[in-house]
Amino acid sequence: MRDIERLKEIAKQCRKDVLRMTMKAKEGHIATSFSAMDILSVLYFSTIKVDPKNHRWDGRDRFIMSKGHGAYAIYSILARKGFFPVNELDTIDKVGTAFGGHPDMKKVPGIELSTGSLGHGLSVSVGMAIAAKNDEKDYRVFTLMGDGECQEGSVWEAAMFASSRSLDNLIGIVDFNGLQAIGKTENVLTLSPFAQKWNAFGWAVREVNGHDYNELLKTFTELPFEMGKPSMIVAKTVKGKGVSFMENQINWHARVTTDEEYKKAVKEIEQYS
Q1: Which of 28, 53, 106, 108 is the most buried (most CB within 10 A)?
Q2: Which among 25, 33, 15, 27 has a CA at the least distance from the CA of 80?
Q3: Nearest to residue 163, comparing CAs of 129, 120, 194?
Q4: Distances (CA, A) of 269 to 19, 112, 212
Q5: Model confidence over 146-202: pLDDT tens digits?
Q6: What is the pLDDT of residues 23-47, one digit of tens each?
């Protein structure tokens, strides 16, 4: 229970980091960062092997933020993990900042791949997982995708290839919040039956509540779900989770808060559990 409270507190701080960064930059994707934040908190502070002091350590697990518009979420997580000082996030609006609207692997310690053009993260992750197998390394490769991103054909090409190569060191996570830039994912291009599709493509699949810390912790400890198969975690989430007036609201896909909304959002995050 103490560990869960610690993870929740980290996620709270990170949500406030995201709000602060978007206010400074006057741009960013708050809601999509919030839907993934609980997943990232559990992943980075209880699951993956990384060394903030040696971020290119060869034995580290790899994580790719394929939904690159959630960059502010991973920036805050990496800062809280110790990859760089938290106060560096405040350079977000300044000339020469390392922190852009999408993550840059050449500028931000801990970022494994520059992302933003959706649909490519899983393909690169497959390559990383194959490299680990060929080099007889035991690191794992995690990839976080959006549900709207899974409308890209390249995702499914990578999915087929991963299962054909028995990449049980590859873990896909889909932040399934049901919304994308222009509407509900099911209305734009239906994904149902989503979990069954991954299963049919040869992956071992689990569906979880992406905001339930007990469920997330249990799921991550059971990886890989099946030897000889890549693992897929379909995490059902709420876009804008933690702030009532942002939750499940499409208009919050890419807008930022007013001063009054910022104060209200911070207050709600403090009370979020």
Answers
A1: 28
A2: 15
A3: 129
A4: 10, 29, 16
A5: 999 999 999 999 999 999 999 999 999 999 999 999 999 999 999 999 999 999 999
A6: 999 999 999 999 999 999 999 999 9
| Residue 126 contacts residue 160 (beta carbons within 8 Å) | no
What is the total residue count of the chain?
273
SS (H, E, C) the chain: CHHHHHHHHHHHHHHHHHHHHHHHHCCCCHHHHHHHHHHHHHHHHHCCCCCCCCCCCCCCCEEEECCHHHHHHHHHHHHHHCCCCHHHHHHCCCCCCCCCCCCCCCCCCCCCCCCCCCCCHHHHHHHHHHHHHHCCCCCCEEEEEECHHHHCHHHHHHHHHHHHCCCCCEEEEEEECCEECCEEHHHHCCCCCHHHHHHHCCCEEEEEECCCHHHHHHHHHCCCCCCCCCEEEEEECCCCCCCCCCCCCHHHCCCCCCHHHHHHHHHHHHHCC
pLDDT of residue 273 exceeding 70, the answer is no
Phi first, then psi: what are they for 171, rounded to 5°?
Answer: -125, 120
Question: How buried is 217 (Cβ within 10 angstroms: 0-12 exposed, 13-18 middle, 19+ buried)?
Answer: middle
